[in-house]
Design a protein that fits this description.
The complex is a heterodimer. Chain A is an alpha/beta fold. Chain A has helices spanning 59-67, 89-95, 112-116, 130-143, 161-173, 191-206, 218-224, 247-256, 273-281, and strands at residues 21-30, 33-43, 48-53, 74-79, 82-84, 97-100, 123-124, 127-128, 179-183, 210-214, 227-232, 235-241. Chain A has a 6-stranded mixed β-sheet with strand order 6-9-10-3-11-12, sandwiched between helices. Classes of the chains: A alpha/beta, B mainly alpha.
Chain lengths: 282, 455
């Protein structure tokens, strides 16, 4: 990870080079339902990619394919340019891909340090090495400016929604992670808390991580994303720098798959699902 | 393991964003006071906040103990309750409930319930007493205990597999186990009326007999207690000091000192009670019963296992949020199965203690398995362990067990005639309900407080 240290604020210089994570032609179906059709997606380092789409567009399935929860039926994932197979969550973690799920997966009764190290505790002669874990967790939180050393030992249940989200994000970036997927990070948060989390997302980008934010909330997406990728009924209908979209066009892409009456160049008209399924089977 | 600290260096000051300040956290009620406190005054203020928030820790059980002690002292005939002989008897009786309860707590922490614990305890006792009988099989005492605990562990493990892998609710599995093993005890004993006895003059059998009945020499008990208190005290003191030095979260020095002083005071009080001659004019009976250090050893084992190992951390995590534990790579079936196994093995030891408490005579009526379950759950919950998983400590079982033992014995002292047996069920039952009520209300209080505070 040391190569990212040299880069300071702003979009990562390598952003224009090979994307850190690259998906090509991802198909995924569940029974007769085709969830993803030939999806391509790039996640460059040092940039925030916003993944938009209406309910059922396939955002979660795509995320889970990257996270190793689902396996694509077809298509290839490239990590740092080399093809990889992510068969389970552990493979994703080994590559440095961490996912912050919507429901956070924090244990309320454990404190911040315990949650951040859950499943990867450091031990010393089989006994938990609390001091070392507390120090590292404190440093990570300080690096993200999510901090107050005095209360790092408080149970997560006593934190507010935004603070919990911050802890979940900090937990994700602790492990040499290079790609962080955030599933609806601002859902159910108030204005102040949302601001706090979006600032945190920017800091991840500034540290050179490839960040993907999945969100319904266009305000948040436009505020934080450098690039946008829009899914419509399992197809990637648009993927471009955020500046090339306006709110209107994003809504049109999300609801109809086209914008301004002209389809995206990469977009092919939608077949009947049954035909499409048959086509992919062939 | 290299962490990403390198990549997480603070960003340039130009792009100043508001820091996320965790001290502004809303739910003060749930934050352990020693975490936020820098001085003793702050600690007590934070502790008061926590009490008001409904999370009261050990305070209710300690207060309840004082109330029970005073009440029974006033209403028992001849005000006999607080005589040293009676207090030591309560200690000895309670140890059975303490050990049972410590086993039950690990299952409660997972958010499960083990109803078979009483029957399994009696199984453990019967097995150990069978194995140590002369002339055969005449196992050495340690082998008898070991085999008995192993058998109980296997029983618990099998129930755990049914719960964890087959996903049958623990309630049903252990209810079945409760009935099954209640019957098995009679078969093992060889009839409902048979009893197994220990001969205290046989040095091998005397070890089991003396678990509850034997006392440690007065001088030795004072010296040993002194050594233990000094060791534990200095560990507490120096650990806190070293954590403070390296800037980690630690209680203020004065608080550490108070804790050590309280621990020493409790030890001295127990020893002072135990070293009074309680045998009367004809025989001298004095000294610390062996069972007390043994139970403290089990407390130490469980505390270490739950607080200082990965296994313990995962038990808490599963109790708090099983999904979080699963995503963190914790094998839920594995931890659950082991917890049921360890719970039952601990219960088996309680069964061995129970036989010794009844002067080494084991029969099918030394204990009522249903009552033992009720008492063990009651002791855990009264001590402060939550029925809903994720909150609790081994010490809760010890304090709750002592309270249950005090109530049970206090009732039997009162010469109530026909009422005394029913009251031994009614009073602990009522106390259990009260404790669960407090548990439920405090959780609800904490949750509404938190929701209200969330932006």
């Amino acid at each position: 990870m040391s190569e990212e240290n040299e880069h300071g604020v702003g979009p990562h210089p390598s952003a224009t080079a090979e994307p850190l994570l690259k998906l090509r032609g991802i198909d995924k179906h569940f029974g007769a339902v085709q969830a993803l059709y030939h999806v391509d997606l790039d996640l460059p380092a040092g940039q925030v990619t916003g993944l938009c789409g209406d309910n059922g567009a396939g955002k979660s399935v795509l995320t889970r394919c990257i996270a190793g929860v689902h396996q694509p039926d077809r298509g290839q994932i490239y990590f740092e340019g080399r093809p990889v197979h992510i068969r389970q969550a552990r493979d994703a973690a080994a590559l440095g891909i961490e996912t912050v799920y919507q429901d956070l997966a924090l244990a309320d009764n454990l404190d911040i340090v315990q949650n951040m190290f859950l499943g990867r505790e450091r031990t010393h002669y089989q006994m938990l090495d609390e001091d070392s874990m507390e120090r590292s967790a404190g440093e990570t939180l300080a690096g993200l400016r999510v901090t107050s050393v005095r209360s790092i030992r408080q149970p997560v249940g006593s934190l507010s929604g935004g603070q919990r989200q911050s802890v979940a994000v900090a937990k994700a970036v602790m492990w040499n992670s290079k790609v962080v997927l955030l599933d609806e990070p601002t859902a159910a948060l108030g204005v102040v808390q949302t601001r706090m989390v979006l600032d945190l997302v920017r800091r991840l980008r500034d540290h050179g991580l490839a960040v993907m934010v999945i969100s319904h909330n266009l305000n948040d997406v436009f505020e934080v994303a450098d690039r946008l990728a829009i899914l419509h009924l399992g197809r990637m209908v648009a993927e471009a720098p955020a500046a090339s979209f306006d709110r209107q066009s994003v809504v049109e892409y999300m609801t109809t798959g086209v914008s301004g009456g002209r389809p995206d160049p990469s977009y092919t008209p939608l077949e009947q699902p049954a035909e499409a399924a048959a086509e992919t089977e062939a | 393991m290299t962490l990403t600290q390198g990549t997480l260096e603070p960003v340039a000051p130009g792009e100043a964003a508001p820091d996320v300040d965790l001290t502004a956290a809303a739910g003060v009620a749930e934050v352990p006071p020693e975490i936020l406190a820098q001085s003793l005054g702050e600690y007590f203020r934070a502790y008061w906040q926590k009490l008001k928030g409904g999370d009261s820790g050990l305070l209710p059980v300690l207060v309840a103990m004082v109330i029970v002690a005073i009440a029974f002292e006033l209403i028992t005939p001849e005000n006999a309750f607080l005589r040293p002989s009676n207090l030591v008897y309560i200690f000895e009786l309670s140890t059975v409930y303490m050990v049972l309860s410590m086993g039950e707590i690990v299952v409660l922490l997972l958010g499960e319930l083990d109803l078979s614990i009483g029957a399994v305890a009696l199984m453990g006792g019967v097995i150990a007493y069978k194995l140590i009988q002369t002339p055969s099989p005449n196992f050495p005492w340690w082998a008898a205990i070991l085999v008995s605990l192993l058998c109980c562990g296997v029983i618990g493990g099998l129930q755990g597999i049914l719960v964890a892998r087959v996903r049958i609710p623990a309630f049903v599995v252990t209810l079945g186990g409760f009935l099954f093993f209640t019957g098995m005890i009679v078969i093992l004993l060889g009839g409902a009326d048979t009893s197994l006895g220990l001969d205290p003059t046989n040095p091998n059998q005397a070890v089991l007999y003396n678990l509850e009945q034997g006392n440690i020499n007065v001088v030795v008990s004072w010296v040993a207690t002194g050594v233990v208190v000094v060791i534990l005290g200095s560990i507490t003191w120096f650990r806190a000091a070293s954590r403070r030095r390296s800037g980690l979260v630690a209680p203020p020095a004065s608080l550490a000192a108070i804790r050590i002083a309280l621990m020493a005071a409790a030890a001295v009080a127990v020893l002072a009670i135990c070293t009074v001659n309680r045998g009367g004019v004809f025989a001298t009976i004095q000294g610390l019963p062996w069972v007390i250090p043994v139970v403290l050893g089990i407390l130490g084992f469980w505390t270490l296992l739950l607080q200082q190992t990965r296994y313990g951390r995962y038990v808490y995590a599963i109790g708090g949020n099983p999904e979080a534990a699963r995503r963190a790579g914790v094998s839920l079936p594995w931890i659950r199965t082991w917890s049921f196994a360890l719970c039952s093995a601990t219960a088996g030891f309680a069964g061995i203690l129970l036989g010794s408490f009844y002067y080494g005579q084991y029969s099918s009526n030394v204990g009522d398995p249903g009552q033992l379950v009720l008492y063990s759950v009651a002791a855990a919950v009264i001590g402060g362990t939550s029925l809903f998983g994720g909150r609790g400590k081994a010490i809760h079982g010890v304090l709750g067990g002592l309270l249950i033992g005090a109530i049970a014995y206090g009732v039997s002292l009162m010469n109530l005639g026909t009422l005394s047996i029913p009251l031994e069920y009614i009073l602990p039952g009522a106390v259990l309900l009260l404790a669960v009520l407090v548990d439920v209300l405090s959780r609800r209080g904490a949750r509404t407080g938190k929701d209200a505070a969330r932006v």
